[in-house]
């Protein structure tokens, strides 16, 4: 292998709302890389405790101590505006503070080293990506630069852009953004290649911690993946189930002791943690209990939780999942009997009620469990990463991915109406144009507002950005034609070009800061900051290691006191010892005193 090839090794990262996972193609198979704790998935969590920064498992375990400084769920923030109702709803439940930054971007506020620090969601996500990158580097024993990162199929343009930016801040070259369910289907396709003759239709049901994603794909001969339709909800997942359990416990606490614990952050964090554990147990057992000492004002809290109660509390969400699956089938124009396999992905797909509802819907006796629900996404991303990297062993030369655009894209026209240029579920990459006419006499400029969504009124959709095309020659209204050309690349990222047909003048939409998109300079500044934090972390670790070594030394010396005392006593007790025995004792003593390397 040449040097260039070595450097081009690419990894696959599943950057999840709650857990992230990294994988690489090595020795002709996918390796899911365990982190420094030996875990195959890493909590997507960053904690700032006094002057130390923790990422992953360590951050999660510190969470209850410093809830206001322990950041999770940034995937719910990324690429969204502060005033977005989904952000406002999520904020009510977060123990950490989020404020409105310039251009309505949400900023996370923490106290770090005695000072208030503000971070963008992209920055926190980049810290998690750095952790995944380092995990891969320590496994591969060399630096890693290239990565494929996955996003929910339902992510809009800004969310995809922001994820790419997070990758750049982490020092990664994001060679492709792919959809999580597509990645899971690739994993399934590779594992079942020999059993797939001709074409099969699969439905990927991915229910994670924060998002729900459904995709219907046709797999041909195990290596062509054609996405037929995608659907989902960027705000539905395991955390919602936890929240409902928490709400129920809060209500129960109030009923028993007439005390409202919603103001007690620490109690809520402890409660949420206990509920999440109970929820996992309820996937195997039909009953469990929640037990917390001194939860609030010295009161111990203990209550039984049954699987039936859990299902009753969450039935609304479960039904929503099934409705989304049905809508996706309609979009794909596919009868449910044509679905050959349902692939379960995401930790929450382990919930028995969800599995039985799916089984019932598809009249299936068993659901596919051949892929690991926690690892399938990273697994598929690693395959894609290898295919795209220059040192690919060409195992996947035939692998072809035909993805779709998840949400309709278009412009606002007169009367705040939304005019669709690229309908949802159009295969990507794609380029489509639509021609519009001016609406006023002698109109000299037109403001092009770009939206993404399915609502008839433009402002009910997600605003992506706007730009002005000027220099329209004087003419009566409707006489001048302007063409809007929408182009989506393989990452699902959009460019809009406007052209005045009579003059040929064009204007391009570069998604501006107003839309919350980071500029190149801002990203560069953040890369510098990330390096600074990394160095600080390393210095902190060096200092902690030095202290540890010193304490170790003291401990060993203290141990020597016993050894010397024992040896002295040995002399008193063994006056009749032989020369051999005495010499052996001396050797033993010397070996204990020798410095160890
Ligand atoms: P994401 O991709 O959103 O990060 P994951 O796929 O890692 O999420 O799933 C995490 C979610 O799955 C969490 O909400 C977790 O509580 C839930 N989960 C994990 N195992 C189980 C289980 N056995 N039963 C129910 N929920 C589970
Ligand atoms: Mg996931």
Task: Outline the secondary-structure elements.
Layout: H1 3-7, E1 10-14, E2 19-26, E3 29-32, E4 42-43, E5 46-49, E6 52-55, H2 57-62, E7 70-71, H3 85-91, E8 97-100, E9 106-112, E10 115-120, H4 121-140, E11 146-151, H5 157-169, E12 173-179, H6 180-191, E13 199-207, E14 212-220, E15 224-233, H7 238-257, H8 265-281, E16 287-296, E17 299-306, H9 307-331, E18 341-345, H10 352-362, H11 376-388, E19 400-404, E20 409-413, E21 417-422, E22 427-428, E23 430-437, E24 445-452, E25 462-470, E26 481-488, E27 494-500, E28 506-509, H12 520-573, H13 579-593
Parallel strand pairs: 1-11, 11-12, 13-18, 15-19
Antiparallel strand pairs: 1-2, 2-3, 2-4, 5-6, 5-7, 8-9, 9-10, 13-14, 14-15, 16-17, 19-22, 20-21, 20-24, 23-26, 24-25, 26-27, 27-28
Adenosine-5'-diphosphate binds near residues 211, 280, 351 and 374.
């Amino acid at each position: 292998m040449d040097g260039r090839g070595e450097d081009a090794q690419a990894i696959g990262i599943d950057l999840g709302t709650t857990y992230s996972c990294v994988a690489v193609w090595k020795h002709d198979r996918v390796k899911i890389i365990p982190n420094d704790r030996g875990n195959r998935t890493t909590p997507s969590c960053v904690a700032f405790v006094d002057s130390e920064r923790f990422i992953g498992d360590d951050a999660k375990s510190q969470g209850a101590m410093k809830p206001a400084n322990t950041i999770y769920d940034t995937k719910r923030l990324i690429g969204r505006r502060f005033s977005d109702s989904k952000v406002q709803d999520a904020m009510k439940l977060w123990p950490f503070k989020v404020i409105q930054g310039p251009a309505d971007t949400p900023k996370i506020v923490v106290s770090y080293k005695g000072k208030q620090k503000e971070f963008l969601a992209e920055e926190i996500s980049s810290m998690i990506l750095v952790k995944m990158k380092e995990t891969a580097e320590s496994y591969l024993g060399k630096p890693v630069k290239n990565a494929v990162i996955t996003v929910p199929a339902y992510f809009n343009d800004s969310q995809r852009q922001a994820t790419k930016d997070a990758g750049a801040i982490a020092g990664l070259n994001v060679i492709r953004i792919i959809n999580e369910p597509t990645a899971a289907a690739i994993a399934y396709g590779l594992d079942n290649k020999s059993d797939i003759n001709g074409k099969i239709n699969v439905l990927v049901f991915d229910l994670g911690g924060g998002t729900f994603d459904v995709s219907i794909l046709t797999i041909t001969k195990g290596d062509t993946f054609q996405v037929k339709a995608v659907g989902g909800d960027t705000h539905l997942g395991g955390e919602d189930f936890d929240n409902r359990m928490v709400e129920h416990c809060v209500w129960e606490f109030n009923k028993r002791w007439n005390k409202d614990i919603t103001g007690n952050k620490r109690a809520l964090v402890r409660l949420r943690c206990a509920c999440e554990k109970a929820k996992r147990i309820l996937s195997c057992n039909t009953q469990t209990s929640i037990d917390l000492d001194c939860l609030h004002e010295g009161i111990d809290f203990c209550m039984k939780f049954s699987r039936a109660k859990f299902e009753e509390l969450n039935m609304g969400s479960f039904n929503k999942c099934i409705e989304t699956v049905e809508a996706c089938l309609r979009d794909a124009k596919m009868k449910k009997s044509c679905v050959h396999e349902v692939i379960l992905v995401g930790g929450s797909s382990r919930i028995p009620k969800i599995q039985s509802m799916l089984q019932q819907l598809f009249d299936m006796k068993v659901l596919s469990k051949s892929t690991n629900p926690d690892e399938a996404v990273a697994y598929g991303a690693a395959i894609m990463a290898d295919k795209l990297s220059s040192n690919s062993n060409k195992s996947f030369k035939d692998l072809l991915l035909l993805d779709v655009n998840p949400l309709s894209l278009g412009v606002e026209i007169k009367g705040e109406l939304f005019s669709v240029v690229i309908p949802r579920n159009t295969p990507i990459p794609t380029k489509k144009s639509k021609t519009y006419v001016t609406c006023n006499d002698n109109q000299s400029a037109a403001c092009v507002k770009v939206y993404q969504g399915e609502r008839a009124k433009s402002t009910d959709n997600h605003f992506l950005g706007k730009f002005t095309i000027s220099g329209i020659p004087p003419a009566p209204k409707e006489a001048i034609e302007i063409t809007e050309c929408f182009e989506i690349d393989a990452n699902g990222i959009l460019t809009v070009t406007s052209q005045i047909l009579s003059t040929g003048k064009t204007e391009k939409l570069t998604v501006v800061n107003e839309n919350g998109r980071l500029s190149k300079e801002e990203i560069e500044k953040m890369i510098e900051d990330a390096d600074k934090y990394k160095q600080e972390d390393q210095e902190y670790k060096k200092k902690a290691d030095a202290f540890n070594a010193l304490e170790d030394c003291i401990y060993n010396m203290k141990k020597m006191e016993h050894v010397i005392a024992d040896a002295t006593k040995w002399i008193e007790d063994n006056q009749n010892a032989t020369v051999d025995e005495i010499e052996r004792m001396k050797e033993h003593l010397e070996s204990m005193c020798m410095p160890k390397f």
